Amino acid sequence: MLPTACEVPRERTARASPSIICFRSTAPGTKQELPRFDSLPLFAAFALCQAPAIPADWAKPNRSERPTDPAGEPHDATGSRQLGFRLVPTLPRLLPTPLQASAQTLFDGTYPMCSSSLRSSPPSSDMLSAAILPVELVSLILEHAYYDRVHGKPDVDTLLACALVSTSWTWPSQRLLFHSVAVRATSIQGFMDAINPEHELGRRRGDVVRILEASVGKLSDRALSAPGFLAVLQRCPRLYALNVRLCALHEFDKDTLAQLRTIARSKRRTPLRALSLMQCGVQSPVLYQLLDVWPTIQFLRIGVELVCPPPEPGGFQLYELAIHRMPSPDILRWLLSGSADSLQIAEFRDIPGPQLTDLLTRHGPRLRSLRLMPFNMRATAVIRLCPNLEELVLFQLSTFLGLGALPQRLEHLSFRNYTWSSSPSLETVVATVGRLPRLRIVSCDPRAEHHQDFPALRGKCAQRGIELCADALPIWVVDDPIPVHRFPRRKSVSNFVLMNQCAEGAVRACAADGTMENEYQPG
Question: What residue spans carry the Basic and acidic residues bias annotation (predicted)?
Fold first, then answer.
């Protein structure tokens, strides 16, 4: 499986990134394809980097010569859709040894950055003659291209292509490729080889992994065994976030729990800050086990229904809690038992019922951000219990219920208007924009631009100097789990800085007490 993402500059968010179609290399003597770019700045940077070797006619718009599919989209000879420029493959000297550089080869032995070739640069010595861009410019290019435009996920094909542009691009590209990884049983061996700590480059790759997604259990070709899961965790010492699914596994046994605690409490490790549990049995106690292993969790997302009675209150303090299926009052009270002074962000895909009013009364005044799936009468009551909100995100507008009075400190209002639950009118949103004195940003999904009331909303926002952004990502794309200075938080490579600071703090602490002797320090 492949690497899978405070107020930040807009040009570096997920919506702002262009795409590159990864090149393929075939057998010697056959036609090859090089990176294709649909962004002129990215192509220009690539061309500058390879300037000594690229002929003048290498890149040319060639749409009229390309075959098209029935929908009229241009294709290349292999049937892949092309974006923007077609780069004519005339320079085999730019490529390393023949390989199929695609998403499927990231963690197997054919890709030069992994397993069988633990080198810090592509194997082609001819690339050394390429012009070198300043490292700051290379970083900006890669960060700009990190997320795809539609789904807010890392653009793996782009990063794979960039890793082979030149030696100066290889490690910056790999740092981003290994920032967020999803490991399956079928790819675990290649991944373990790629982060083998016996090699310097393997240690470096393992040290830059911040987000790990894994399924654990059995009866699935994706799920890792418990020993495999432990081995992966052991080689990712600077992990910041863990997204886990349990497949046909009720709970971790005592031996596995003991080894998890040993890993978690190692002085050489960064404290885990974010946990997502997206699959397990309703009676499974695994959430309680994981929170006992990692009491440092501050960002918690639960995507399953839970009915297992909770244990004694734990020692964790949550900054953010996201719940897809509302648990029983006892479980929710347990989850929030230590977070009276720390909880700032809450997300509920199911609206909390009246039986949770006392709990919301206690925590609501401290909430800065509230995200709700359905907007109904109960939702309005929940919002009233949160008078100091700076951000309100509604994943579904009501077809008949107006927004009413919202907290006056609101700075960011976000709504969705999907076709399957569209509102016949945005008048209530327009009216609300005119009533909120501190409102700075209104965001919505791209489809809202086609709503008949969108011009009125745009005019009201322009009149008040409010930024209107029709670029909200799908509801299944979650924000980066970091503390927020000012909303919206967004999903951006700029947020990686805070995750890295957490890792660097652990490195400094280990260096101070001498537990990092001869260990590579991530940079």
Answer: 60-78
